[in-house]
Amino acid sequence: MIHLFTTGGTIDKIYHDANSEFAVGDSLLPELLEEANVAAQWQLTELCRKDSLELTDDDRERVRQAVINCPEDRILITHGTDTMAETARALTGIAGKTVVLFGAMQPARMRRSDAVFNLGFAMAAVGLLAPGVYIAMNGEVFEAGRVQKNLRAGRFERT
């Protein structure tokens, strides 16, 4: 069984046309997994609905405790890309679990989003990787503590 935790981020953002702004909404993961005909058993738990720039150290500790207390050893976490590397670092040192953080540069609700690809890639990665904490974005896997987001290029890079 794979346990999916959601924290918010761009992947779950919805556009409020009347206000011309985005907000974090319900996760589309159940719908996306069903559409993809994913056969793996999975469970979803929402931890929060925040843009990653709004996540605090208390939020990161809540994510860490959720991972520690999770009975499953394969865990996916949706996360906003701006502070994903920071949260991944905060999760290091949890023994016996494979934890993969992923997100999207464009909301899953948009036609030209990388969300579906990143979800599929993260699902594969969590099943194949050794225990540890990783970020899976845009076809690459990065170890926690050895990755940063390149804001200018809009992608993750090894450090």
From TrEMBL:
<dbReference type="InterPro" id="IPR037152">
    <property type="entry name" value="L-asparaginase_N_sf"/>
</dbReference>
<feature type="domain" description="L-asparaginase N-terminal">
    <location>
        <begin position="2"/>
        <end position="150"/>
    </location>
</feature>
<dbReference type="InterPro" id="IPR027474">
    <property type="entry name" value="L-asparaginase_N"/>
</dbReference>
<protein>
    <submittedName>
        <fullName>L-asparaginase</fullName>
    </submittedName>
</protein>
<feature type="binding site">
    <location>
        <position position="52"/>
    </location>
    <ligand>
        <name>substrate</name>
    </ligand>
</feature>
<feature type="binding site">
    <location>
        <begin position="81"/>
        <end position="82"/>
    </location>
    <ligand>
        <name>substrate</name>
    </ligand>
</feature>
<feature type="transmembrane region" description="Helical">
    <location>
        <begin position="115"/>
        <end position="137"/>
    </location>
</feature>
<dbReference type="InterPro" id="IPR006034">
    <property type="entry name" value="Asparaginase/glutaminase-like"/>
</dbReference>
<dbReference type="GO" id="GO:0004067">
    <property type="term" value="F:asparaginase activity"/>
</dbReference>
<keyword id="KW-0812">Transmembrane</keyword>
<keyword id="KW-0472">Membrane</keyword>
<feature type="active site" description="O-isoaspartyl threonine intermediate">
    <location>
        <position position="10"/>
    </location>
</feature>
<keyword id="KW-1133">Transmembrane helix</keyword>
<dbReference type="InterPro" id="IPR036152">
    <property type="entry name" value="Asp/glu_Ase-like_sf"/>
</dbReference>
<dbReference type="Pfam" id="PF00710">
    <property type="entry name" value="Asparaginase"/>
</dbReference>
